[in-house]
Design goal:
Blueprint lengths: L17 E3 L1 H7 L3 E6 L11 H14 L4 E7 L3 H12 L3 E8 L6 H5 L2 H7 L3 E6 L4 H14 L4 E3 L7 H21 L5 E6 L3 H12 L5 E6 L4 H18 L13 E2 L12 H14 L8 H13 L8 E6 L17
Length: 333
């Protein structure tokens, strides 16, 4: 089924900018680095989840939903953008938020994405670390149905095959931008967590016969676990598109060296990477995703993993509102 045949509700600003980062490239002493600014998608502070929500919210509308339910971590970028999308479309939104980092810092509990969730008038449900949020979502769905509502559950990160279509479209957009600039992209690097963004990009590039290499920098699990997760979702996405091309195992690549102690937990490398991007390019990253992904990119460049004449594109998946929840992490700068 062609991508254009899937229902989609426009929510974001696209195409997002593709910009050169000459000062960062010089600072790292490696190849030419570019950034795909998906932090500029616009909806509720922007970020990569907006592309996924265009397909997921369309499906919710088709099913007559009046209420959206989605799980995530307490400072979830996905939850924030889902709350914004629901507000824009006149739906109620329930966010099931797990305190994965077990952080008692007041900024973490009340600022950043949490502040924006409240401004979007989402209903916030807080759970301790280790809670089965999928089960909690099903329980809440039953309660809402009994109250006469029509709920629709969006999975963590919007990462199912339908949501991944947002990055099939994103891959096509990037290819068109590169073609118009006569830019040959060698590597595309991004943070990878719930897997939908990386799976969608690989599916989009593969179905359009692109040779761009995709590398996900893990933010929550080992490379082996992440690659399995991405491969499974990419296969489902290709099946949804009725694409007959085989998925080469080597197309799914992840690096798990920059997770640190776990999801949402700061690392020294992340702090340095956030400071470097800000001071060299005025580019704001986030502590959970893009900061760790940039730490990975910087280390790989410094270790000579790329050729000097390569063109690297860093996918900025957004998340800078979370900086305000991690204020104490950056006190030493």
């Amino acid at each position: 089924m062609p991508l254009a045949d899937f229902p989609r509700v426009p929510l974001g600003h696209s195409p997002t900018p593709l910009e050169a980062l000459p000062r960062l490239s010089e600072a790292l002493g490696g190849p030419q680095i570019w950034v795909k600014r998906d932090d500029c998608t616009g909806l509720g502070g922007g970020g990569n989840k907006t592309r996924k929500l265009e397909y997921l919210m369309a499906a919710a509308r088709q099913q007559g939903a009046d209420t959206i339910i989605t799980p995530g971590a307490m400072q979830s970028n996905h939850a924030r953008q889902t709350a914004a999308a629901a507000a824009k479309l006149g739906m109620d939104c329930h966010l099931l938020l797990e305190n994965i980092a077990a952080d008692s810092d007041r900024d973490y509990r009340t600022n950043g994405n949490i502040l924006l969730d409240r401004i979007f008038h989402a209903h916030l449900h807080h759970f301790p670390n280790g809670t089965d949020l999928d089960l909690a979502a099903e329980s809440l769905t039953d309660e809402l149905r009994e109250a006469g509502r029509v709920p629709y559950i969006i999975p963590t990160g919007g990462s199912n095959a339908l949501g991944a279509l947002g990055y099939v479209a994103g891959a096509v957009e990037l290819m068109e931008q590169a073609k118009s600039r006569k830019l040959s992209i060698d590597h595309l690097i991004l943070a990878t967590g719930s897997a939908g963004t990386q799976a969608g990009l690989v599916a989009g590039l593969l179905s359009n016969e692109s040779a761009i290499s995709v590398l996900g920098i893990c933010v929550s699990r080992s490379a082996e676990e992440q690659e399995k997760k991405v491969e499974a979702l990419c296969s489902q996405t290709l099946e949804l598109l009725e694409c007959k091309r085989a998925l080469p195992r080597e197309a799914i690549r992840a690096n798990g060296d920059f997770v640190g102690q776990g999801y949402g937990l700061p690392t020294r490398e992340m702090i340095k990477a956030v400071a470097l991007a800000a001071s060299s390019e005025g580019l704001l990253l986030d502590p959970v995703y893009t900061g760790k992904a940039m730490a990975g990119l910087a280390a790989l460049v410094r270790n000579g993993e790329f050729s000097a004449d390569d063109n690297l594109v860093f996918l900025h998946t957004g998340g800078s509102p979370a900086l305000f929840a991690y204020r104490s992490t950056f006190d030493g700068l």
